[in-house]
Write a structure and sequence with these properties.
- The structure is a homodimer of 333-residue chains.
- Chain A has 333 residues and is of the alpha/beta class.
- Chain A has 2 domains: 140 residues, 2-keto-3-deoxy-galactonokinase, substrate binding domain (Nucleotidyltransferase, domain 5, 2-Layer Sandwich), CATH 3.30.420; 120 residues, 2-keto-3-deoxy-galactonokinase, C-terminal domain (Nucleotidyltransferase, domain 5).
- Chain A is 35% helix and 21% strand.
- The first copy, chain A, is built from 12 helices and 15 strands.
- In chain A, the strands form 3 sheets. In chain A, strands 3-2-1-4-8-7 form a 6-stranded mixed β-sheet, with helices on both faces.
- Chain A is globular and about 65 Å long.
- Chain A starts with 8 loop residues before the first strand and ends with a helix.
């Protein structure tokens, strides 16, 4: 059918972070019709800048549907991005995010704001200052995909900067950032702890004995993980651990410490709070976090991945961006 | 007096670490007659290797006193050094270190062993595996310079890998390593936290408000410092802290967390244990640690610096290396 007009595309959704750009063509039922990805994170845009990246990655879609709206989330809306989208204060849900979209001039593109808590200008009291950008959209997607999470739930979003997020009545009410992924990466690459392991060491295994021993060690420590880091070296030098296990152990220490803090171990536990715990992340990292949570007695954990497209779709819907492309309301109206 | 034989030189003392080589000519009363330094740490030895470094830095002294014995401490005795000097187990004092000296063939040079606790082959039970190399010699020097520390004391040795060391009856009985200095360095140079501060930012001030606020924040935290690291960024993004203060704050967080752990805060305090606390380190770093200790209610803190030469002198004396050069016993005997 050479003249098939194709499925009813409704939205171009962009997950545009620090190290990559993922683009999705989304149909009228929120279904992903096509997807593309480029390594054009905001820290490594090619010559031509953000506009050229946007034009190139969306070209095949816009060639066919010239008036398709686009919505982007992630660091593209930061001060280092294309257009800064000011943070939306907590509590923030899909409606608040949709109300805070910032347009990019001349591109038929909007950007989702990040979320802030504890901002000086609107001090909320006890909340520790914190920010997210990109995760709010994954959260909107998770809430859309799992309506049971709306009322009250806790989301764990592992990554470079892991977020633990409390949800109430469909909105982000509180969150905390743990630099676990970044600390692991810089210690592995730049500290004496990385030098013990073979240069071609595989990524830490999510269920190795060394990883779980690291989790347990951090869980049972009287103090924080900083006092334990050197043990990744000392255990090798004293013959208690093979050098090849040191990165698994270090990963376990850092993730175990994160959980000890986030779960208020030993005085409290997520399992006791009654909040269902859901991990949002890629399967390998999610498996590591799930195995670590089990060491804290938390066994019932749901896992979601790739929720950003659904989040962009639902935010676009809440903002009234959809249904404008066939034909665009601005022309038909 | 062109023919003045000079003072009675007795020992060449070498403090030979990862990044530098410091050499001292020591007289019969343990006094430093001359000193030299080169950036020839064991990770950056010039062509010719360790022997050439040793020959070059000691040449002027050995040209005059060819049979002067030399004693070295530090990473030069590690597996990556010149000759490996096996770790001496805890409890270890000057006598045990002296008994463990390892000769370097053909160089009239000996190397001081490091100290180990919790080695698998001789498990001491509850002691966490840990190692030191170089600090044991500084400790021997501190004990010689401050006899009041012999009976029972606690030493704090800030640096890349800060050591907290308990002394009883003149021997190292227990110690713990904190990677505070290295973690600060890698986070500053390689993580998102370092990007906030101006590239030419001065070193963290030992008594700035941002530093002390970081100390207090770590001290009062319910959990470890890893959960607080991102606050160094979030506080800037939320308008609560100028970007220029972020490194001072980060330094305070890391040092405060170290003290929270080492002092078993809040359940115990060094001031309550009755152990006098002594910092051994360069004045700028010692000032930072002293200011941080004050935030934990520890006000009585002695500070020593540059104790390695005295340590080498006393270990050499205990090993019977001294008194051999005028004339050397091997020739006169």
């Amino acid at each position: 059918m050479p003249n098939d007009p194709g499925p009813p595309a409704q939205l171009i959704a962009l997950d545009w972070g620090t190290s990559s750009l993922r683009a999705y063509l989304i149909g009228g039922a929120g279904d992903i019709l096509d997807r593309r990805a480029e390594p054009w994170g905001i820290m490594q845009v090619p010559p031509g800048g953000f506009a050229a990246c946007f034009d190139t990655i969306t070209f095949p879609w816009r060639a066919r549907w010239p008036l398709l709206p686009a919505l982007a989330a992630g660091m593209i809306g930061s001060a280092q991005g294309w257009v800064e989208a000011p943070y939306c204060p907590c509590p923030a849900g899909t409606a608040e995010l949709a109300a805070g979209l910032v347009p990019v001039a001349g591109a038929n593109l909007w950007i989702v704001p990040g979320v802030v808590q504890g901002r000086a200008a609107a001090d909320t009291g006890s909340a520790r200052p914190d920010v997210m950008r990109g995760e709010e959209t994954q959260i909107a997607g998770a809430l859309a995909l799992r309506p049971t999470l709306h009322k009250a739930s806790r989301l764990v979003m592992p990554g470079t900067h892991c977020k633990w997020v409390d949800i109430a009545d469909g909105r982000i009410v509180r969150f905390a950032t743990y630099m676990t992924g970044e600390v692991f990466a810089v210690l592995r690459q730049h500290s004496i702890l990385g030098r013990l392991a073979p240069a071609d060491a595989p990524p830490p295994s999510p269920d190795s004995a060394a990883f779980l021993h690291g989790v347990d060690t951090a869980r049972d420590a009287a103090a924080g993980v900083a006092s334990l880091l050197f043990s990744a070296r000392a255990r090798v030098l004293t013959g208690r651990m093979p050098a090849a296990d040191s990165l698994d152990y270090l990963s376990g220490l850092l993730i175990g410490d994160e959980m000890r803090s986030a779960l208020h171990w030993p005085s409290g536990m997520a399992a006791e709070t009654g909040l269902p715990l859901t991990i949002i992340g890629d399967p390998a990292l999610a498996a590591r976090y799930r195995n670590a949570l089990a060491r804290f007695g938390v066994a019932q954990v749901d896992v979601l991945e790739d929720t950003a497209p659904a989040g962009l779709w639902h935010i676009a819907a809440a903002a009234g961006l959809l249904g404008a492309a066939h034909p665009p309301s601005g022309i038909a109206g």
